[in-house]
Amino acid sequence: MGMMIGISFQSPTEGSPTLASYSRFFSNDLVLAGLARTVVMSGLVAFCVTVLAYPLAYYLARSTSRWRTVIFALAIAPELAGVVLRTYGWLIILEDRGFINSALMWTGLITEPLPLSKNLLGVVVGLTHVILPFGVLSLLTSLQSINPNLEKSAQILGASRLAAIRHIILPLSVPGIVSSFLIGFTMAASAYATPALLGGAGFKVMATMVYEQVLFYLDWPFAAVMANVLLILMLAAGFVGSRLESRLHQKLHL
Amino acid sequence: MRYTALCAPAIVSMVLAANGHAETLIVNSYGGPYETIIRERIIEPFEAKFGIEVIYDAVGSASQDYAKIKATNGRPGFDVVVMTASQSLEGCKEGLLEEFSPEEVPNLEHLSSVIAGVAGPCGAVHEVQYLSLLYRTDKLAERPNSWNALLDDGLKGKIILPTFQNVMAAYLMEIFSVAHGGDLLENVDPGFAAMAKLAGQSIGFEQSSSVMETYIKNGDVWAMPFWNGRAQLLVDSGLPVDYVLPREGSIPLLATLNVPKHAANRDAALKFVNFFLEKTSQEAWVTGYKVGSGRIDIEVPADIRAKQITTEADLKALLLPDLAAVATRLSAWGERWERDVVAAAK
What we know:
The structure holds 2 protein chains of 2 kinds. Chain A is mainly α. Helix content of chain A is 75%, strand content 0%. The relative contact order of chain A is 0.16. In chain B, the strands form 2 sheets. In chain B, strands 1, 2, 3, 4, 7, 8 and 9 form a 7-stranded mixed beta sheet that branches. The longest helix of chain B is centred in the last third of the chain and has 23 residues, at 323-345. By secondary structure, chain B is α/β, with parallel strands linked by helices. The interface between A and B is medium-sized, with 17 and 24 residues.
């Protein structure tokens, strides 16, 4: 990391220290658009992962069914296949001549393929699938630590199941929600393979732009600036997440 | 007696090692059909002639290999690497690659001076390909002889383009620039204008050549720019495809052999480079992999000569941009590509 910070202050042509690459980063609209795209994509992925993982983690935390082990294995199973393999799987499903578009065109519902890949939608779908198991695991740990008797007590006192979840489980699982969101955000922001394959030429994010600078343009100082900005973005997300968690704790009198 | 029995194999091993029997050379290049052909046509004859064992490392592309050389300051763990003239120039400038001398690599003097000059002193050009127009023979009624054929209405939605991070894109833009009244470096406006029109024709962009070829294999794409060596492999595989060098000309891809500055087996590496540039080796490579050569004294069958760069006249017909100057413009051209070309495809 020290080397990366050092390289970011090097001139691409001379050896002298300079802020030229930082200046270029913050004055280039294409690069700033890539940064904005990274933030939006990562935020959406973190949100989708948390929302989808929550009910699954809740079921796994509370269920005593013999199917629990099967469901748990299925939730974690995507991690057994490589990221590239899973991403190609989504490409086969989402591309213009993929499964969904072919089926819709065959049934006559559409005449032109829907833009499901090579854009934000495709990348968010692919990354959500890749990161979902991590969201489930972080929420599961949090939900398992909540005493089930609290829910039972609330229901004995007349609360519906939904009200018990809303007023008891949800506030108590805030640390799990925050950690799921942070894991989703940071993993999505640093992901390379899925945005490269499902995003295509028109959807570039920081990770794919760093790759281009390192391998094609051979401008390592500029790549280091991008990587440093990405790192600061993740640190900022972590800081905001921890502050948010402590505020919610105070607000909910936990 | 027991000591003698135990020590004898060790002593034999040491003597063999001291005599050079354990000399090895690590060559980094490509996998797939390339690996099969290079092993058969170059590596095995080299091993037989010099008694040097070649370890073949097929991991990484030319740009990844160059990044590895740069990151390790010339100690990447391999002794010879196949890259391109662009990386040869950059590596020479950065002091990361060995400069070849005629004393150590005598066969360099047999290369065309024009081609050798493009790659610089650190790159030994062992193969010349050119950007060809690859097309489906079962879909196109006529053989396209001009790059402008890609702009025909009949090919709307039937072509695919490389992303700018595949060097084919910059070369195609330069070819269109020259064809439409511009030049290779300073006035490339006509090239970008043509590429924007072409983007409107295309079904999208792909970075990897291997992904691009899947589109023409399955018939979704009917024509596209492609390196002629890979195009020839598709022709040989029996697909209904063929390729042409259009009349406006083309830019070559000069594949080079390079030796990292601090290669562990430098002497063996230089022997390998020289061996690959031998007349017989070049003939074996050109007829095996079906590409062109920087040596114009080679003798190859007429059918190969007809489609490959093998003569002085072939070389003169090529457009040869100053690759060092192209490298300084790539970043600006990449941004312009995003604004003008990628935007036009949406």
